[in-house]
Structure formats: structure tokens, C-alpha cells
Amino acid sequence: MHEQGSKGCLIIIGGNEDRKDERRILREVAREVRGGKLVLATVASRRPEGYFDDYQRAFSDLDLGDLVELYVEDRVEAGDRSKLSVLDDAAGIFFSGGDQLRITSQIGDTGIEAKVRALYERGGVVAGTSAGASVMSETMLVKGTSQITHRIGDLHMAPGLGLIRDVIIDQHFAERGRFGRLIGAVAHNPRVLGMGIDEDTAAIVRGDRIDVIGSGAVYVVDGTHVTHSNVAEGQSDCALALHDVRVHVLPDGNGYDLKERRPISPDN
Amino acid sequence: MHEQGSKGCLIIIGGNEDRKDERRILREVAREVRGGKLVLATVASRRPEGYFDDYQRAFSDLDLGDLVELYVEDRVEAGDRSKLSVLDDAAGIFFSGGDQLRITSQIGDTGIEAKVRALYERGGVVAGTSAGASVMSETMLVKGTSQITHRIGDLHMAPGLGLIRDVIIDQHFAERGRFGRLIGAVAHNPRVLGMGIDEDTAAIVRGDRIDVIGSGAVYVVDGTHVTHSNVAEGQSDCALALHDVRVHVLPDGNGYDLKERRPISPDN
User: Fold this and answer.
1) What confidence tier does B132 reach under pLDDT thresholds 50, 70, 90?
2) Which CATH class is domain A9-253?
3) Which InterPro entries match (chains A, B) (predicted)?
4) What ipTM was estimated for this complex?
């Protein structure tokens, strides 16, 4: 496991986080932003209308310095100086949901991506929910059937933003029955740790340490000790075989050490 | 792990087995019955009409000696000599789907249950699908929310028929997103192995060996090496924590050794 280099903080949310009541996760985002400016990137959505109002309401009494929207219609816009300057004095960015491929195809290798990376490296916050969560890994899950045992070949992956290394993220995890597809992704290369995040639940990454908050759980799928897999031999419609996968179920208060690949109990 | 004592064979099906086309699993049931008589026990259902016709059609060209229905309206009927005699010369029994509590509450500790056990012990076949699968374990899963991370306290278990020891069975597994609840059941007592069976998939148990057939997979959840669990401490609406669970994904051709608690690759 490589060390995660940045001084910043990732807040990776499994989608559908509480935006009305206790707002446990958004409160944590605001706390990390420390009264600074948060940029809401709605670029994952083809119809971003409503997202900003919704989050503005949710964050209204949570002591943000400022909340501003960043939307780009296409790649050309992602190089616009006016778009780029929004990120200059930001303390954090929050990617809302939609389609993870829209995020990477619109801002991948643009000035915006460089600014997001710079923000993270100088100690800023990068948060993302649903599609905005998936996009944080180096290789991201794009598509794959839920609620069925994973079929070899039925999994689409693509390069993500690469803010967290050697991890592949899935969201809406228990809610959409995605255990099969995450285990399938890990089978492709057990170097990569699977991280399945439930709705209204977040994995907060600071350096090599992950802390879990929210009402569900984070599932870590570790293929290090896998003894048998049929991923390379099987037909593409063939059901996955995988022996000796290690799984950790981590609810609020639990953590995970990415370097040691070990779960952390609430009392540690 | 205790040794499984019987000379018989269990065919534990995750529900919704193919009854029209290839009928891989029903073909295996018929093969094990070896031209003998198969009793279709529709007792799990409150409205058993149609089940018998459906299975009669499905088994029609599969070389069964005879297919007869066994239904009991209530516990009194479960002691009827005419009902009991149906099982005397049977080579196998097949429990169709419905409600597992109906099976155990109607025939538990009756003459029928004794005859099923005797059939199994003399080398007969006990098959069951969906509710008929759950009922085979000593402690069976009755109810528990699917598609959500398991909440401590949200799991109802009851004594089953006890044909397989130290195993707890769940069905419609990937299809209904039941990983959370099976892992929750295992957390209660890691002596018990979790066995989640997909639809159109069967675990065939002969002695200590399990073989998997069908289009999905059997998930074995082994809690032997669990290092942390909050089952006893947590509030009942609290999400489950469980560290170091071992999981095996076993599709068609894979197996499992119950005594050694080890998966078996297709080439063994």
C-alpha cells in the first residue's frame, strides 16, 4: 500500500446524505472547511438546476464562509479563467451526484482538475457524494449490475481523479445490493482495496487513516489473501469465483488504516 | 465444526430455480431420487394451489418414479396417518417456497418431521427452495431487512429443522441484497457459518462436502477469525460492526468442505 501523500482531507459520501435534520456529514464538511469558501461542483449532472439551492439551504446555518457553484457545460468551459478563479481561494470543493463519467470526461486533464489537486495538496477538503465519491479513486467503477452475483465482464471501469490510491469506491452500497460488483472489481486486481459506502455515510480520509461517520457502514473488501479466482479464465457471462476475501463492516466510530490494511475499533 | 452425520443428500436452493428450460437444479434433484418417489411438500404456503401443477410440469420428462403432494392445513393434520404414509416409500422430499415459519410451526415435532429426518438418515434426498431452503438449518433466519446495513436487533431467528448443523442459510441472496443481514446473523455466533444462496443456484450437501450448481453463486461467510464485533454492546438501531470476516464466492463447479471450513476449487 502506498502512502497517501496529501495534507488535505477527503470526505467520501455514499450518496443520499441527510440534508434536512441532523446533517451529520455536511456538518463535518463545514467543520473541515473552517469558515472558508466551499465550491459546489455540480458537473456530474446534466441538469444541475436545484442542486445549489438545495445545498445552500442545507449548509445555511453550518458556518460556511461562502458557498459558490461551479458548473461546466463542456471541456472548453473547463479552461475558462472565470471558472478557474473560483477555486483560487477555496477551502474545499464538494462534488454532488450524477454521472461519474461526466466529471472525468469534462474536467479530466483540464485546469479545473489541476486546481482541485492543488487545493487538496495544500491541505484543503475534497468532498463528494455518490458519483462525486466514485470519482476520487485512480480507477473508478462506472457501471456494473447491482443485485446479482457479479458476471465476469459485466463491469465497466475508467480512470478517476486519483485523489486516493489503491482503493476503488462504490456508493449506495447496501441499499443497492452492490456487494457482488465491488467484490468483482477487487478480483480484477487485489492490490486495490474495495470500499463500499452506504447512503448517509462517509469515509473521511486524512493521510493513511479513514474514519467512518453516518448512519450506515463502510464495507472494506480486502483481496490480499485471495487463494482462487476465475476472473482471467472464465467466460464473460460466467459467475465470479473468489475464495478467501476479507471483509470489514465499519459503522460510525470505526476506522481503517490504509497503510497497515487493518480496521480500527472505536476505542482506538 | 461437527461432522454431518447422515447418509442422505440435501439440495438447498436459493429460490426461483429454472423450471422451464434447462432445469439444471431440478434435473439434479431427479437424478438423486433415482427413479423413486418424490414428495412435494407445499406446506410453506398458505395458498398451495398451483405449486403441484407447476412442479409436475417441470419434472414431467426428468424420470421421476412418482411425484405426490403433501400439504397440511394445521398441526392436527400433520399427525394424520394418511398424510404420514405418503413419506413411507419416498426417495425424497422437496419443500417449495413460502414462509419458513409455516413449515416449522406446522410440522415441527410432528410425525412428519420425524419421517423427514428418517428419510434423510436412511440416505434419501431433502430438497428445498427459498423458505424450504432456510428451514434446513438448526437456527434459521426468519426475517430481517434486506438492502440496508444490518442493524443490531433487526433480525429474527427461530429453530429450524436442523438437518444441517452449524450453518445458517439465506436465499434470494444477491438478488435481494442480503449480505448485510447474513453477516449480522453470523456476528451473533461465529460458530455458525453463513451460507447465502442466489436464485437458480443450489448447494448440494453430502456429508461434509458442499457442491454448488446453477447460474448464480453461494456465498460462504466465515466469522471464525472475527477480531471485533459490536453485537452485544450496541443499541438495537445501531449499525453492525464486524472486523475480519472471511467470505468465499462459490459459483457452479466450486465446493466447500464444512469440516475443514475451506472452499474447494473446480479442479478438486
Assistant:
1) very high
2) alpha beta
3) Class_I_gatase-like, Peptidase_S51, Peptidase_S51_cyanophycinase
4) 0.90
